[in-house]
Every structure is written in C-alpha cells, then in structure tokens.
Amino acid sequence: MKRILTTALLLLPGAAQAANASLNVATGSPTGTYSAMFKNIGAVCTQSAYLRERGTSGSLENIDLLLDNQVSLAFVQSDVLKARQQIDKDPRVENIRALLPLHSEELHLFARPPVVKKNILGKTTVTGVQNFADLKGKRVGAWGGSLITARVVGAMTGVPYRIVNFKDQPSALNALMGGQVDAVLAVVGQPAAWVKNLGNGVNLVPVPMNDRLAAIYSPAKLFYPNLSAQSVPTIAVQSVLATRDFKTPDKKKLLLDYQKCAMSKLVNLQEDEGMHPKWQDVTFRTWPWPQYK
C-alpha cells in the first residue's frame, strides 16, 4: 500500500520535479549565525522545503563546497569571495552569484588580559596584546573564513603576524588559554552565543579602520558586557547567501522563488519573536557581489 501511495503521489503534476529538487545549503556550526538565519528563512518561506542544511566549519569550507559542486547554496563572507577572486585568481569565482545579501559580520579579536609587572626599581612593564599593533610578530589563531580575513587584514594594516590554522572555535580558544597563540581572530555576527559565554580570562582587542580596509570592510562596534564595560571598535564584512549561476529552468525557478520570498518577508524576519537579531542589519539593498537573476 505504501508503494502504491508513493507512486500515486509521483504521478501528480510537479511531484516528480519536487522529489528531485532538493538542494544542499552550506551553513556553519549548529549554534552559529548562518545556521540560525537559514532556519529563520525556512520558518517564513515554504520554498525552503526543498533545501537541506549542511553543517560546516564556515565560509572557507562553504566556498570550496560551492565551487566543487557539493552544495547549491552557501553562506559566505564577501571578503572570502574577493580574496579567492583577486588574490588566488580562481576563475571559477566568476560563476558565483549572490542570491541574498545579508548581515555584516564583525571581526572579534580576543587576547588574554595583559600582564603587569614591576621590577625591583619600581618600573612597570605590561606584556600581552592590548591593541592591534601589539600583534606584530605574534601568533594569531583562526579557523574557517576567519583565516582569510586574518590574511587580508594583516596585509592591509601592515602588521605582520603569524596565522595559526585551527579546525574550529573551541580548539582555537583552548590554544589561546593554553598560551599556544597570543590572540584569536574570529569573524562572526554579534551577538554570538559562544562569545557571550566567555569568562573573564579573555579580552576583546580594538581593531582600527584605515583607508585600505575601507575598500572591503566597514567600521563597527562590539557590545559584550561579559567582556567589556563599554563598546569595542572593530571592523565588519558583509555576508551573502551565494549560489552558482545556474541556468537549468527548474533550479533557476526554485532559487528565484526562494529569493523573492525571503525579500518579501524581511519585516517578518526582523520583527517575529525568535528570529536572529542580525536580521536588523539586513536591507537587501547593498550587494557586495553580483546578484543572481
């Protein structure tokens, strides 16, 4: 009987198409902003029924999955796309399109509190990372798309530091607390749940803006009462939900319907209870990458 019902459903108009229409979407960690925003769109758009979430380590893995045809959509930082295009000269990036322009993601720079010492003459010395310039010659941990941001920001500020690659956020922070790195750089939309849970053993370090950075990044501020009594200046990069420039009519319609629904439901995404606060930053007006049409 089950087989008969399944066959009957597939004979309905459009059912066969829908059965084969599932697309994979690369997001990030289950507790991350990308995953939350993907689920939020799914709550207001029935067009998301054919989209399946694929958890990843973030933007760097996401762009590789998209370029390698392992997923059809991917949440990525726009600086990762630009670095792949302008630094790595990867011709495949020319086929990438932005299905939706999303929120800004702030650069979080973490370090252990500075150590203050007095010598026998009463002279005070302070060691550690208090400002961005203190990273010179230091070890900076990062993972995912933050590895690319660390590379770009280091070059654009002229502050030479050594980037240490980690597989994820817990391993990077454990290395910071254990003294294996001097700082950790993470690009994530605030408020990030895991940042709000950090204790007093970690400080937020200010990140200054300059003319070179302004070509890709925008000024921003971090607000985490658990880490600082006041806001901390930093920079931010816009994220996008990216896809490839698909031409297949069925897939194109599915993607454009999803795009249209998300854009028409922006007020719901911003005002409905339980939606991620980063929707407040989204306007769907600024496109840091060519639009999918």
UniProtKB/TrEMBL annotation:
Top-level taxon of origin: Bacteria
Keyword Signal assigned: yes
Keyword annotations from UniProtKB, A to Z: Signal
InterPro entries tied to this protein: TRAP_TAXI
Pfam families in alphabetical order: NMT1_3 (PF16868)
Any coiled-coil regions, as ranges: none
Residues spanning the signal sequence: 1-18
PANTHER family hit by this protein: SLL1037 PROTEIN
Protein name, UniProt field: TRAP transporter solute receptor, TAXI family
Species for this entry: Deinococcus hopiensis KR-140
